[in-house]
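Support request, priority: normal
Reporter: lab tech (M.K.)
Component: structure prediction queue

Hi team, I submitted a job for TonB-dependent receptor from Dyadobacter frigoris yesterday, and the status page still shows it as pending. I've pasted the exact input below so you can check whether something in the sequence is tripping the parser. The sequence length should be 923 residues. Please let me know if I need to resubmit or if it's stuck on your end.
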Amino acid sequence: MKRNFYQFIVILSLLFSQITNAQTVKVAGTILDSETKQPLAGASVVVKGNLSGTISNATGNFGININTPASLVISLVGYEKQEVKINNNSSITVSLKTASEQLDQVVISASRVEENILRSPVSIEKMDIRGVQQTPSANYYDGLVNMKSVDMVTSSLTYKQINTRGFNSTGNSRFLQLVDGVDNQPSGLGFAMGNLFGPHDIDVESVELIPGAASALYGPVAFNGMLYTRTKNPFDYQGLSIQTKFGVNHINDGTGLGAKPVYDMAIRYAKSFNNRLAFKLNASYLTGTDWYANNYTDIDPNTPAANRGPNNPGRNAVNIYGDEVAQTLPNIGRVSRTGYEEKDLATYGVYSLKLNGAIHYRITDKIEAIYQGNFNQGTAQYTGSNRFVINDFKFIQHRLEVKGSNFYVRAYSNQELSTNSYNSRALGQLINRLWVKDLNGNTVAPNVADATWFQRYAAAFNGTISGVTLKDPTAARAFADQGRILPGTAEFDADKEQLIKTRGLGGAGILSKCSLRHVEGMYDLSSLLHVFSLQVGGNYRKYNLDTGGTLLDDLNKKLTNDEFGMFAQASKSLFKDMLKLTVSGRYDKNQNFDGRFTPRASAVFSPGENHHFRASYQTGFRNPTISDQYIKLNVGPIIILGGVPVNSVGLNAYENSFTSASVSAFASAFAAQVQQGTPFPQAVANNKDKLVKSNVPYIKSEKVKSYEVGYKGIVGKKLLIDVNYYFSEYTDFIINTVVIRPTANVLLPDGKINPDAAAEILNGKTQAFQLYTNAADKVSIQGVSTGLTYSLPKNYRVSANATWIDFNLRDANANNIPAFNTPTWKTNLTLSNARLTEKLGFSVAWHWQNAFDWYGTFTELRPGRISAYSLLDAQVSYRVPSLKTTVKLGASNLTNHYVVQAFGSPSVGGLYYVSLNFDQLFR
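Reply from support: The job had stalled in the queue. We restarted it manually and it finished. Here are the results:
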């Protein structure tokens, strides 16, 4: 297969190589600053339409061989791009103007081809290299929160998740993240871990963000939007760059543990040889103490709100684990086990190691081949159905690509290796089952530990234990807790380590060695057609699943999943380029689901050079994640079962089961009649018709249709205005439902309820299943986002944006709809000046959002309030040009107001840092 792939690359190279008889001229030139007349080093000089180019040296000079006639494109960060036509002239001087703000940037991801951001057919945001360098946040990824429509959730110091346009979550499988075209999601997790496994700032060139459905061009994961990050090409960004950053967090966090250091170090080296071969190497390491999840609010659903609190015997605190195990004891009431605080179970020493290397070879002036390899390893906390420690998680990527000016072919692989990750909540519960003693003082087996603990509590509370005060819940708990393994002891640490190493129901460990292989390509036929622009492309992806049977049904068997997609996009400019129409469509097929066609249509009307009105119709879909499809986990009282047919063969759960609600109604009515003296068979016969056969469909894709109108324009060459309104309808949301399966057929041949199946419910001859399926309910959202960017005199820049979003449940059952988890209002305000003086610059960013209720599986979908909050980030930088060095002093959350962004996740305070950047030394 590899040999065939390499042969394919060689054939492509031959196909796209062009032979020319044009005259070759060597051009020498000098690049100057138009104001200071000083030479500019590091300016990029590229032959228009080709990949070939060079860069200016320390004296601003360059030399390049070109085939005339041609045009050279000269660009440098912070300056306006300039195009120079070359005929027979062999010497040129180019003066570049300083660009205080590039309001009409070029973007690629909106249509997969280069276009002016003003004429993009859909909403799109961009952070260029200057934005990356000048962000006041701790890193570029954190700085994305200042873009329109973006919601950000912090689960860990090393893990932040972003989302757009609602239905937010801490593990977002509805949002696509690409880095140099490579999907950045570990396939077993089913979502990208923020930037834990992404590029470091030192190698980021630009970031583009599309809010809303992008499935028509990018497939099923781009359901809520897409983030596309581009790293620096070693031909364009050469030399040695070093960044060292020291920070402090946990200042005045209320724990008394004191401030903690944060270190972030990165190095990059790139070199080009003869403008044909280039390479780059990156290494970075971040380490620090994670934010603490220390919300001890009692949320026990079986205790009236007025009686909850630290003295509630049935207390269930948000970030204490083990106290979820509770019983209602006769004549006593609700009692929970004594749990362990998260800080005693989690791994708060987090880190992120990133190693990256790439080799670029220009086969011809128009074709470039690239190999890139990434090794990532890190630790982070993740708030899902439980709090998980993604511990020493390894993520390995390989990318091989051949690209030209009008095509690319890309193949890549993602491999995850998780052997030390674990479930913090399960860990607390399991430790609690290792030390419980019976009334004779003997340690009992873990499988009876919980029941024995409650027996001890009841005996002490009821006064049958000598020396324990009668009806004293504190004294009863102390007696039941005798022998409890205490945090900080050698015994606790040894048991904790052993349980982390143990996987499956008997331990807290998580194993995943899943991977994916992906190949894709695109060809731009526009230069051949002339009448209209046309791009076509497609991809194939294969998942290889391996959890050792701890999560999926893959023990001693090979479990795979295949999917492919094809797309085409056509565009045409009419009426002297005043109207641009674009139509695109994509067909995707996963082996487990019907094929999906997702169209997109847009129109951009441009009455003037700087005024552009757009309207679009977009569609999107999301295939169930690998876990949604294949999970098969027996957790004792219930089996969690993924929703594809092959996953439930032989279990008869979808085909032969009762709804959980009808089983409860039947059991209650039966019990009432038996209590009144009705014989067992008669009570069954009288109430069996209360049972309802379940009709749970196998899982399928979620769907969205979206309509959008907007305007983007520049007024007076200084003010950029961007406003849009959208309306979206969603259906077929993926949900879970519980069914009860008897061994007998639930229906008789005549379609009536089988009495034998009803009797089995009462005799306990049943199995409960949590099935993955879809809800037919339809909901909608609408929203408006507005942004203003103004370039002031003397290089000042101010930008402001606001987003309003409204969720309409319509007639849907709220239990069938994923949590919206999105504030109605959020605003951002940024003031910056990168050249306050020749050496001094600054940037200040303020973010605010209103309060809302967060629903998550961590709290069993019970709401937790997220208070309104604001964040202030700021940085001031000082450049030393002679040393190519920048010193930056900054702070994220400058006011150090501790905020929680998702209920159950940690409190996030200020991070204060100083960094030293050495950029492109030895260039």
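DSSP finds 13 helices and 50 strands in the chain. The radius of gyration is 31 Å. Let us know if anything else looks off. Ticket resolved.
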